[in-house]
Amino acid sequence: MKTTRFGVSMDDELLEKLDSIVQSRSYPNRSEAIRDLVRGALVGEEWSSTLDEVIGVLVIVFDHHQRDLSSRLLEKEHGRSSDMLATLHLHLDHDNCLEAKVIRGKPEQVRAISDELIAMKGVKFGRLIPATFGDKLR
Ligand code: NI
Questions:
Q1: How far apart are the CA of 37 and the centre of ligand 1, in A?
Q2: Domain ranges in the chain?
Q3: How far does residue 96's CA lie from ligand 1's centre (Å)?
Q4: Ligand 1 centre distance from Cα of residue 95 (Å)
Q5: Which of 51, 56, 126, 128 pairs as cysteine with 60 (C-beta 3.0–4.6 A)?
Q6: From 3.30.70.1150, 3.40.50.970, 3.30.360.10, 4.10.910.10, which CATH number describes the 54-130 domain?
Q7: How far is the CA of 87 from the centre of ligand 1 (A)?
Q8: pLDDT tens, 20-72?
Q9: Which of 66, 68, 72, 56 is nearest to 111 (CA)?
C-alpha cells in the first residue's frame, strides 16, 4: 500500500498531549500514534454507519452464585448462536466470574444482545468494545 507523508499543524498544548500519549503507550513515534487514533475513530464511524456485520467484544463480570444466572446467560446465547463466536471465562475469585464474548452481527444486533446480557440481574459490570477493522467505510 502506498504511504503518503503530510504535514499536520497543531497547537503546542495539543502536541504535548499527543506526545504524552506516544510516551505512555510506548509508540515508536507520533505517526504510529496518529494512525491508531485515526483507526479508532474509523471503527466508531463504521459502527454508526455501516450496514455490514461488525465484531464486538462484550466484557461482563457477574456473580455466579446469583440464582440461575449462568444458565440464563447460556440460554440467551444459544438463542443467538450464530452471533456468538466465542466466550472466554475466568473465575476471578470465589464469587465472581469474568467473561469476554466475541459477538458478530449488524451493529444494532451486537448492541442489543450486549445490552440484554448486561441488564441481567447479577451482572455487576458490562462493557461492549467495538473491535472492527476500521476499513469498511465506503
Ligand atoms: Ni467462573
A1: 35
A2: 12-49, 54-130
A3: 6
A4: 8
A5: 126
A6: 3.30.70.1150
A7: 12
A8: 999 999 999 999 999 999 988 888 777 777 778 888 999 999 998 887 888 88
A9: 56
